[in-house]
Amino acid sequence: MEEFIRMNELKIERWSMKFEKIIYEEKDGAAWITLNNPEKYNALDEQMRIELKTALENVGKREEIKVVVIKGAGKAFAAGADLKALLEMDVIDVSRFSDNLA
After folding, report:
1. CATH top-level class for 5-99?
2. What residue segments make up the domains of the chain, in order of their start?
3. What's the half-sphere exposure (Cβ side, CA atoms, 13 Å) at 71?
């Protein structure tokens, strides 16, 4: 049985990024992305948003990946936005955060 390829650091061509808030794994043509902040029910903060967006953009460039599965660590998939983190941002950062969710 083939094991998952687990990467805390995703390397594609000359690009690399160390992930702290997501776990990236590959198996049999599938990319598995785990939202990994279970203490906050995987609430989406700026760091997780950037990591998720970056991983998805780069997975999209890889022909061998046919499907992406996104799941949450712990009890919840995702609680939504991390409201505490949003309260610590200024208005411009909150605007950028919400604009970049799409």
Report:
1. alpha beta
2. 5-99
3. 9
What is the distance between the alpha carbons of residues 38 and 77, in angstroms, rounded to a whole number? 9
pTM summary value: 0.72
Give 39's DSSP letter: G
Chain segment 20-58, per-residue pLDDT in tens? 999 998 889 999 999 999 999 998 888 898 899 889 988
Helix (H, G, I), strand (E, B) or coil at 101: coil
Which residues lie across from 27 on neighbouring strands? 30
- Phi-psi region at 87: left, alpha or beta (left = phi > 0; alpha = psi -120 to 50): alpha
Structure tokens at 15: 């690009």
